[in-house]
UniProtKB/TrEMBL annotation:
EC number in record: 6.3.2.6
Keywords tagged on the record: ATP-binding, Ligase, Nucleotide-binding, Purine biosynthesis
Record has Ligase as a keyword: yes
Enzyme superclass (EC): ligase
Protein name in UniProt: Phosphoribosylaminoimidazole-succinocarboxamide synthase
Pathway the protein contributes to: Purine metabolism; IMP biosynthesis via de novo pathway; 5-amino-1-(5-phospho-D-ribosyl)imidazole-4-carboxamide from 5-amino-1-(5-phospho-D-ribosyl)imidazole-4-carboxylate: step 1/2
Native species: Marinomonas algarum
Length: 238
């Protein structure tokens, strides 16, 4: 597989074409951003940690019957993935109240949400990734209704799988975002799953083990990411 020109550079990852039009190379960089890219820093080892974390989670999800774009690890900071036609929306599940939900609704952080909530956000940094609903997605042609329904169902299935995995490691999966795309007509989970795109708390102390450590200036960001990974069985030195 030959990596060719860079197709896209996001806030923390770059996407490269390959000599196979159905495959892409996803490169995880050491960049860390917050507040819609207004704050960006370099954190040593972050690209490697998130690449291996994502590979581990995607493999676990595939084993549970959830289709993803992940193909294989290529190096410490690169993975081979399927080339998806991405939906420009983020699917968010919240098991516990935190972050923007608390700010929007004035609810206390830490409240368990029963059942978990499902939200949609438009991927648009210039607009601040606004919250949208399923009618918006269909009316503006961002995704077909059937494809969005499949993405929603898969998002909840991911919740069941990952809540159990993190619980075994003594953690609470507070919330997370997922992105989906189409591959030859099939809805697949794309992008990544890492502590950059979810909230994870220690089940006993409620210590934050995710990117909120960066957003809130708590320090020890990569150390927390590695702690999470080791708790669920990831060997970052392999």
């Amino acid at each position: 597989m030959e990596k060719r020109q860079e197709l896209y550079a996001g806030k923390a990852k770059s996407v490269f074409r390959t000599d196979d039009p159905d495959k892409m190379v996803l490169m995880f960089r050491d960049d860390t951003s917050a507040f819609d890219g207004k704050r960006i820093e370099q954190l040593d080892r972050k690209g490697m940690v998130n690449n291996k974390f994502n590979a581990f989670i995607m493999t676990k999800l595939q084993e549970a019957g959830i289709p993803t774009h992940f193909e294989a690890l290529l190096s410490d900071n690169e993975s081979l993935v399927k080339n998806l036609d991405m939906m420009p929306v983020e699917c968010v599940v919240r098991n516990v109240a935190a972050g923007s939900l608390c700010r929007r609704l004035g609810v206390e952080e830490g409240i368990t949400l029963t059942p978990p909530t499902f939200e949609l956000f438009l991927k648009n940094d210039a607009l601040g990734d606004p919250m949208i609903n399923e009618s918006h997605v269909e009316s503006f042609g961002w995704a077909k209704a059937d494809d969005l329904a499949k993405a929603k169902a898969l998002t909840y299935k991911v919740n069941d799988v990952l809540k159990a995995i993190f619980a075994e490691g003594g953690m609470i999966l507070v919330d997370y975002k997922l992105e989906f795309g189409l591959y030859k007509g099939e809805v697949l989970l794309g992008d990544e799953f890492s502590p950059d795109g979810c909230r994870l708390w220690d089940a006993q102390t409620k210590e934050k083990l995710d990117k909120d450590r960066f957003r809130q200036g708590l320090g020890g960001v990569i150390e927390a990411y590695e702690d999470v990974g080791r708790r669920i069985g990831i060997d970052f030195d392999a």
